[in-house]
Amino acid sequence: MNIMPEQLEMITEQFKTLKDRSPFYAKKFDGIDLAAIKTQEEFETLPFTDKGDLREAYPLGLTAVPMEKIVRIHSSSGTTGTPVIVPYTKKDVEDWAVQFARCYEYAGVTPADRVQITPGYGLWTAGIGFQAGAELLGAMAVPMGPGNTEKQIQFMMDMETTVLTATASYALLLAEEIEKRGIQDKIKLKKLITGSERAGEKIRNRIIEALGVEYYDIYGLTEVYGPGIGISCQHSHGMHVWSDYVYLEIIDPDTGKVLPDGEWGEIVLTTLQKEGAPLIRFRTHDLSRIIPGECACGHNEHPRIDTITGRSDDMMKIHGVNVFPAQIEEILATFPELSSEYQIRLSHLDGRDTMRIYVETNGSVDWEDLRKRVASSVKAKIGFTPLVKIVELGLLPRSEKKTKRVFDERYD
Amino acid sequence: MNIMPEQLEMITEQFKTLKDRSPFYAKKFDGIDLAAIKTQEEFETLPFTDKGDLREAYPLGLTAVPMEKIVRIHSSSGTTGTPVIVPYTKKDVEDWAVQFARCYEYAGVTPADRVQITPGYGLWTAGIGFQAGAELLGAMAVPMGPGNTEKQIQFMMDMETTVLTATASYALLLAEEIEKRGIQDKIKLKKLITGSERAGEKIRNRIIEALGVEYYDIYGLTEVYGPGIGISCQHSHGMHVWSDYVYLEIIDPDTGKVLPDGEWGEIVLTTLQKEGAPLIRFRTHDLSRIIPGECACGHNEHPRIDTITGRSDDMMKIHGVNVFPAQIEEILATFPELSSEYQIRLSHLDGRDTMRIYVETNGSVDWEDLRKRVASSVKAKIGFTPLVKIVELGLLPRSEKKTKRVFDERYD
Ligand SMILES: [Zn+2]
Ligand SMILES: [Zn+2]
């Protein structure tokens, strides 16, 4: 995707003072003349910023304004190792709320809505982001925070909640609890806004069916404001990402080369307005693609990314080709006779890499024929022939949480 | 204390439309001509609003604006029974932040400060109140939320926190942990702002000594914004309560009569600017008194209340006199030979009420003489003679949490 002229201008404008403001980028771009960056091609020569760089800047080394201008920090989870600390100015906090309010607007939320917020608060960016956006829009925030399903359901009924914000798995838990109690008619939910984890089509449909809601996916990450930098619209075909706040690239995670629209790769973000901690070419490690063409909603100033299908760390290099689980999944999804479960195993046998794909079906189809059709479909789309193994429906492991589906056993 | 002319004007102004806006007050003040209320005396004839009324209004019966103007709810804990739901408009949310920022100003906090927030978020008003005020002032909010002492201390060191906001008991826990680890020199704390529970002089001094901080008490309750409607100033002699947001009365909890300045009783609050859920003569059940005279800080437009010494439910009626544990405690505190522990037991013996006061001392004083001096001091200050029992230092029960000190055994 080509950079928009306004975006390029915002980037070159911030480059004028970036090194003066930010010791972090002064060091990172040492020896690079930022004033000379005038085109997309030149921009694409700049080195990426990675989460490791951000960790090294711990605690407040990312700060690009005088410290008194920082009014808040957030922090990425960092359950292992050093966390990343993201400092926000007043403008950053406001800009984030503006973006989040726009997310709600895209989802058709109005001041008459009541938004129940189940993500967590504190250093975590989720809860307060969902709340600030709802309040700025003028909807009624019901700030529950996580857990306490009993109280969540009580408040959902008593406050007549119309919009639920939750992770997909918590939404599923609530949906099943509501079904179990047979209280669907006491629930006024119309929309679900979910983020922070990828939900399979099945879970998604299960929630939609149980709660009768419209389903919206929100995008964002702590390092770049938090959730709210993009959302799916009513056409449910990808998430619009706010082009006035971030410049979006999709790169080959292996080579770093920028990929054409439509190709799967890693999302790289450059902030256009962030003061506290601007980020230039930040590697998110989220896998997606830019959806080419126009969206029926008409908001084509904000490009769409596809559902996040995993982490670039999941990328498999096989026979010199980059393969993402999502690509395999997409191909498998075209076979209605297969369940949505699968497993990919990579091994090194007889001197060469092999991909085995395990899929499930029932006994009513010709397994040998199906096996061949799946293998040739992968060959046609990706360029090499995998070993396809068909197993009985229900044989592949399932888990409530994130199911591990890719096993690389080549270097074990 | 006399109502200020501006306060009376704000009250009569809101009375013009109160019944139209608020079904709750239309019902409560049914048959009362609010337009006729023009003086303090007339105002004092209005019935009180109690927490029970607010519970009855569950869920959103307190709302005094069109529902679309509500942008947030908070809720009082309600561990037992129906919770109270408090709806906020955008102005209410902003006004609360303005009041909270003023609290920080009174505590000498500036944009250069870093405020670590350990109270909880969500329906609870504490965390988000502390955060919004800090951000509005321009200080750096470090939004930790409750618990995780390990991480709290890590962030306190790494973020160079200068202001800790916490309950007294959590501050004590952190102080003792910091002492235990011998890392006082790595801690940059200058101020502690604490609320929501009363801390004895000893705990307070223990924290001040361990952390070397200035100690500020904040006042507030969910029904009236949340914490932040008042704070102690650097003279540590009572909490200034914002007279432009609330009108303060101290009443006899038994008769409902307004008490003169200086007398202990129950705090009653009337909101002057609240839109979402205005409250008229709300009984807080918090026991305090208005501190007469001028404060050395010069902010005499905002009257001071004394440290909250308990709940009006703790009031003891004995020989026709209202007695509060705080009064006894105040008297005992004038005896340096006594420890800060005490116990009050009320019983009905030989046809009359008796108060026994247990106090502690060591063996170096004349117990009989001390006993007499304490008894006559109570007689002089409160008007009746208690039975004073002196016990060995350490004999009275102590607890980490709230120690029960008053036992009414008259009707057992
Ligand atoms: Zn669209
Ligand atoms: Zn003062």
From TrEMBL, chains A, B:
Keywords: Ligase, Nucleotide-binding. It comes from the Bacteria. Residues 64-269 form the AMP-dependent synthetase/ligase domain. GO terms for biological process: phenylacetate catabolic process. Residues 320-410 form the AMP-dependent ligase C-terminal domain. Pathway: Aromatic compound metabolism; phenylacetate degradation. InterPro entries: AMP-bd_C_sf, AMP-dep_Lig_C, AMP-dep_synth/lig_dom, ANL_N_sf, PA_CoA_ligase. It holds the Pfam family AMP-binding. One of its GO terms (molecular function) is phenylacetate-CoA ligase activity. Its EC number is 6.2.1.30. Monomer. Belongs to the phenylacetyl-CoA ligase family. This is Phenylacetate-coenzyme A ligase. It comes from Slackia heliotrinireducens (strain ATCC 29202 / DSM 20476 / NCTC 11029 / RHS 1). The lineage of its organism: Bacteria, Bacillati, Actinomycetota, Coriobacteriia, Eggerthellales.
